[in-house]
Amino acid sequence: MSIAVDKVTFAAGNTLIVNGISLTVEKGKVLGLLGPNGSGKSSLLRLICRLRKVRSGIIRLGGNDIAAIPRGDIARRIALVEQQATTETQVTVIDVVRLGRTPHRGPLSAWSARDDAVVLDALGRVGMQGRAAQFWQTLSGGERQRVHIARALAQTPSELLLDEPTNHLDIQHQLDILGLVSKLDVTCIIALHDLNLAAMFCDSLAVLQEGEVVAAGAPEDVLTEELIGRVFGVRAHVQKSLVHGRCNIQYMTG
Ligand SMILES: Nc1ncnc2c1ncn2[C@@H]1O[C@H](COP(=O)(O)OP(=O)(O)OP(=O)(O)O)[C@@H](O)[C@H]1O
Ligand SMILES: [Mg+2]
């Protein structure tokens, strides 16, 4: 389903953290959410999955106001992988991924063959099938990140929100995970710091600064040298790729 954020505001006390944000993601497309530290990316993702309540404005999934969607439906359809996701320590990798099935199961319903198949498929997609029995606490940072992504995939969501999913990942797994996510038939918002990865894998981008959207659109239109200088305070050289119409960014120091 599509995601539409309409003039959304969120505040902690008197501090405005999300200040009148509007953006849309078409069904099955990937939106990259960019912006400096503290610009409101994680806060916006939490609002979209209703972990936080908007102060004003409306968030719609497939045209329906999320405030009117029952909590159980939200839990089944939206998966969020948080920036610093943790989990209980005394559990195995497969137990963590099985948690993704929780919203789909009633209190008395037995674990099904389909649940098993979905969990194993999710583990395989992130390349962690060989680690099913390993304890969570013994995993490396990147392995933990991949297991949390598998848990989100096991939820079989229609909307997937990923908060800096490439944190801790080596370059191969960064490319693998973003390649995987961009091919899923799921509406996706990914908060990212790597502008080149955002240009490679996202259908569109929104750039946040101090809780507001300061640029939005196709990656090659958004990622200009002027914007990178103005928002991130960095001099950059942006080269348009002739092959796929995207762009490549080189940063300059001094
Ligand atoms: N409950 C809160 N009380 C006070 N300030 C808050 C609260 N929640 C978030 N903030 C502030 O709101 C701002 C936006 O935070 P947020 O986590 O959304 O940023 P972000 O864009 O995800 O940053 P990063 O790139 O560092 O992850 C930050 O300055 C943060 O300190
Ligand atoms: Mg964040």
Features:
254 residues, alpha/beta, Rossmann fold, four-stranded antiparallel beta sheet, binds adenosine-5'-triphosphate, binds magnesium ion, transport, AAA+_ATPase
In words, what does this structure look like?
With 254 residues, the protein is α/β, with parallel strands linked by helices. The chain has one domain: P-loop containing nucleotide triphosphate hydrolases (Rossmann fold, 3-Layer(aba) Sandwich). It is 31% helix and 28% strand. The strands form three sheets. Strands 6-7-8-3-9-10 form a six-stranded mixed β-sheet, with helices on both faces. The protein has a four-stranded antiparallel β-sheet with strand order 2-1-4-5, with helices on one face. It is globular and about 55 Å long. Adenosine-5'-triphosphate is lined by residues 12, 15, 17, 35, 37-43, 83. One of its GO terms (molecular function) is ATP hydrolysis activity. It comes from Rhizobium lusitanum. Belongs to the ABC transporter superfamily.
Approximately how much helix is present in the residues? 25-40%
Shape: globular
Across the major sheet, the strand order is 6-7-8-3-9-10
The number of E-state strands comes to 12
Largest sheet: 6 strands, mixed
Structural class: alpha/beta
What is the radius of gyration?
A: 19 Å
CATH superfamily: P-loop containing nucleotide triphosphate hydrolases
CATH topology: Rossmann fold
Brief rundown of the structure:
By secondary structure, this protein is of the alpha/beta class.
